[in-house]
Design brief:
The chain is of the alpha+beta class. The chain has two domains: about 70 residues, 2-Layer Sandwich (Alpha-Beta Plaits); about 60 residues, 2-Layer Sandwich (Alpha-Beta Plaits). It contains four helices and six strands; from the N terminus they run E-H-E-E-H-E-H-E-E-H. Strands 2-3-1-4-6-5 form a six-stranded antiparallel beta sheet. The chain is globular and about 40 Å long.
Length: about 140
């Protein structure tokens, strides 16, 4: 499997950390035809949570989130997909470290022989991240 390293844009929102918050968003996404390729959600503290969505149609996702009263933000990120092999994540992190970049957030997963991850950095360091990873 070839390694694919792509610049992407992710849409994020702050939402209440309570039961049903993500269900409300995903129900609206389904109704509005928003195809979510990847997502992350986590509690930020008492009462607040954050969620990020990588969608096929960013504008459609933005409209769907705004219809629910959210104020979405767009963030650049880098998505990597390759074969699953021992040390692949460490190799990518090493390239970033050699460029003296700090990763603000990352997520990685391996399923069915494939490895995928996403990297977020400070927007001022985004071009450096892309250069370090070759995208």
């Amino acid at each position: 499997m070839a390694t694919n390293i792509n610049r992407i844009q992710v849409i994020g929102v702050t939402l209440p950390a309570k039961a049903g918050s993500l269900f409300q968003i995903y129900s609206n996404f389904k109704e509005k035809g928003v195809d979510v390729l990847a997502a992350w959600a986590y509690e930020m503290g008492p009462g607040n949570a954050q969620s990020h969505f990588y969608c096929k149609d960013l504008e459609r996702a933005k409209v769907a989130l705004m219809a629910l009263g959210f104020k979405p933000s767009i963030e650049p990120a880098v998505h990597v997909e390759t074969e699953d092999r021992l040390g692949v994540f460490a190799e990518l992190l090493h390239r970033i470290s050699k460029a003296r970049l700090s990763v603000n957030a990352t997520s990685a997963m391996s399923v069915g022989g494939k490895f995928a991850c996403v990297f977020f950095v400070d927007p001022k360091e985004y071009q450096g991240l892309c250069k370090a990873l070759g995208c």
